[in-house]
Amino acid sequence: MARLLRDAQVNTIWEGPDNILCLDVRRGIEQTRAHETLLARLRDAVSVSDDDDTTRLVSRRIEDLDAAITAWTKLDRQLAEARLFPLAQFMGDVYAGALLTEQAAWERATRGTDRKALVARLYARRYLADQGPLRGIDADCDEALQRFDELVAGAFTAEQT
């Protein structure tokens, strides 16, 4: 997660453990309102996607993230600092979901395939969906297992990179 957050930035030091990186998230929100640019980028990413369940889920989480940031800005400074890590994690999860959704739309448009849509769907289910009190353990099927060969066939190998 720290790498994803670090790579999303271009103008900061991004060194140190996660809790130190979170202080830079706070600075970005408080001093430069960087979250507004992030949220705009996330909304843009899902705007090119098909209106399917995954896109709707990611879109809802973008709005939830916006509400979470607003709520975070109203907290007492000490409490807000204590909540930075879960906020940063939430930002990273939604960022990844939006980019995967955007890539799925690109693949459908350019290649006519849906492997990236499968990856986006699996990611969204794992990290963005409410899986209920049993956390999906009671699910009677697993799309990742059913389509495992398809997932592996589209993955890069060391020789391809």
UniProtKB/TrEMBL annotation:
Its EC number is 1.3.99.-. It is an enzyme of class 1 (oxidoreductase). Transmembrane segments: none annotated. Keywords: Oxidoreductase. InterPro entries: Acyl-CoA_dehydrogenase-like, AcylCo_DH-like_C. The keyword Cytoplasm does not apply. This is Acyl-CoA dehydrogenase FadE35. It comes from Mycobacterium tuberculosis. GO terms for molecular function: acyl-CoA dehydrogenase activity. The lineage of its organism: Bacteria, Bacillati, Actinomycetota, Actinomycetes, Mycobacteriales.
